[in-house]
Design a protein that fits this description.
Helix 6 packs antiparallel against helix 7, helix 7 crosses helix 10 and helix 16 packs across helix 17. It is flat and about 125 Å long. About 55% of the residues lie in helices and about 10% in strands. The strands form 3 sheets. It has a 4-stranded antiparallel β-sheet, covered by helices on one side. By secondary structure, the chain is of the alpha+beta class. Strand 6 and strand 7 form a beta hairpin.
Length: about 500
């Protein structure tokens, strides 16, 4: 990547005594461009200044000098207006010159606006953006199969905008998260509340993040199977780029599209086998949760303690300074430092027959004193360790149950794999467990918005099973039989696909 080189005078207007005037003048031109007014006279600039909030008195000569300085910095262009009819020399002097933003001026003002919006906004980790990326990839694959070039361009543009939003929000949120981890200025109550809500926010974002990343990766591969180069060429045709400068804008536009696609792959499906950035985001969020929880634990622990040891000793020194009598000082010392009668004096030797209770402490051997006696006033009581329960049989039974449930699920998916589009009535009679799986797939598909031709598409939570549902053109009604009763409903055209090649198993297992 080439280094970024910023023209030295590009942002010089943001500093100095007249920075406010310069920024307001560029703001006035920006507001005019929003209304498709590209050139302004001196009176027009003055009127626009009032509309953007510049209310200070400003002489014509001061405004001209400001415009000339912006012209010297290549931010404003000055041209003569030869299309007007002037009735006097004064009118000619006032209205002859027209001012407009240069390309560098537009970029400089846009940079300032973006910087201020970044300061005012807050980053976010939005699962809705991930879902939008997955949806646009699915739309792109469908448009490549049967859509127009204009719709391919639209789907690709929306995909890139969602990816840019994900990148910008993630970078900003990560920066704010790291600053939160280092924050020390807030009160303990605010600090505790903000970090607790941040932990909950991160945990909610991480839910199903892996499944969403897998879905996006599968759909990226589906688009690439149709040809990334072909997609970009069709999008270029749909973009219908103008040739304003005479040069062909197509090659640069295609290079920019390829760089955006490489960025999408780097996030979800790197071509070099490296770790996807979405997975790195998962790791960063996990580490942040652990760090935040550790900080919250320390805050909670500090709240349990009314003051620190240093504060306790300073308060004790003040007490010693105001106690009047010597006897009171001794009593305070004894009370504070625990110089009271020994609480272990009642402890006896393990064998009282060897050491009599009347033996002098000086002659008797030492007695072990429990560490708990100092803190809680009690000694340990040792007893037999409880028997450890043997759970080998329970673990084996649960493992066998899990294998049976997995086998039942695999068998159900194999039975439901249609191997192509069929009518719902073709299932005929189904076991009740398989019928419940079918109902779950139908519910997932009907819960999505219909696409082109009324087609509804959905997948299971693990991404292994995909269902396509098309409404019946003839209004037919399907009738399915289960051991527990009958099911009536629209005879949808349904297509269920499982991961791997299971069509052969479906064909050998029958269609009912």
């Amino acid at each position: 990547m080439d280094p970024i080189r910023v023209p030295p005078e590009m942002f010089r207007f943001t500093s100095g005594d007249l920075a406010g005037l310069y920024v307001s003048v560029l703001h006035a031109f920006g507001e005019a461009n929003e209304r498709l007014e590209t050139s302004l006279g001196l009176d027009d600039v003055r009127a626009r200044l009032r509309s953007v909030g510049w209310l200070d008195a400003l002489e014509d000569e001061e405004l001209r000098r400001a415009l000339e300085q912006l012209h010297a910095w290549h931010l404003v262009d000055i041209v003569q207006n030869h299309s007007e009819n002037y009735r006097s020399a004064a009118e000619y002097e006032r209205r002859n010159l027209q001012y407009s933003l240069t390309r560098q001026g537009e970029a400089a003002f846009a940079g300032v606006v973006h910087a201020m919006s970044m300061l005012a906004s807050a980053g976010a980790l939005q699962t809705a953006v991930l879902d939008a990326i997955a949806d646009r990839l699915a739309d792109l694959a469908r448009e490549l199969d049967a859509g127009s070039d204009r719709r391919v361009f639209t789907a690709l543009t929306e995909l890139e905008s969602h990816l840019e939003a994900l990148r910008a929000n993630t970078k900003q949120f990560n920066g704010e998260l790291q600053r939160l981890l280092r924050s020390e200025g807030a009160t303990l109550a605010t600090f505790h509340e903000v970090k607790a809500s941040t932990v909950a926010y991160l945990e909610e974002f991480l839910t199903d993040l892996e499944q969403r990343r897998h879905t996006i990766g599968v759909r990226i591969q589906r688009v690439e199977d149709r040809g990334v180069g072909l997609m970009h060429q069709r999008a270029l045709v749909g973009a219908d780029l103008p040739r304003l400068s005479g040069a062909d804008p197509g090659p640069e536009w295609l290079a920019h599209r390829r760089a955006r696609w490489d960025g999408l792959r780097a996030w979800f499906l790197p071509s070099d086998g490296s770790t996807p950035r979405a997975e790195q985001l998962h790791a960063v969020a996990r580490r942040a949760i652990i760090t935040l929880l550790q900080v919250l634990d320390r805050i909670t622990e500090s709240r349990r303690r009314a003051s620190s040891a240093a504060a306790d000793f300073r308060e004790l020194a003040r007490w010693f300074a105001v106690v009047p009598a010597q006897g009171d000082l001794h009593r305070l010392w004894s009370t504070v430092f625990g110089l009271s009668p020994a609480r272990h004096a009642h402890l006896a030797h393990p064998d009282p027959e060897l050491i009599s209770s009347s033996t002098s402490w000086e002659e008797a051997p030492p007695v072990e004193v429990s560490p708990l006696l100092r803190t809680s006033g009690k000694t340990e009581r040792f007893s037999r360790t409880g028997k450890v329960r043997d759970v080998a049989a329970i673990k084996a039974a649960r493992a066998e149950q899990a294998r049976a449930e997995r086998a039942e699920l695999e068998a159900a998916w194999d039975l439901l794999d249609t191997g192509g589009p069929i009518r719902l009535s073709a299932f005929g009679r189904l076991d009740h467990a398989v019928f419940e799986r079918l109902l779950d797939l139908l519910g997932r598909a009907l819960g999505t918005a219909p696409g082109r031709g009324g087609v509804r598409q959905s997948t299971t939570s693990d991404g292994r099973i995909e269902i396509l549902l098309r409404p019946p053109a003839d209004g037919a009604v399907a009738r399915l039989t289960t051991p527990r009763g009958l099911f009536h409903g629209p005879d949808y055209e349904i297509e269920i696909r499982t991961a791997g090649s299971s069509q052969a198993r479906r064909a050998s297992g029958g269609g009912s």
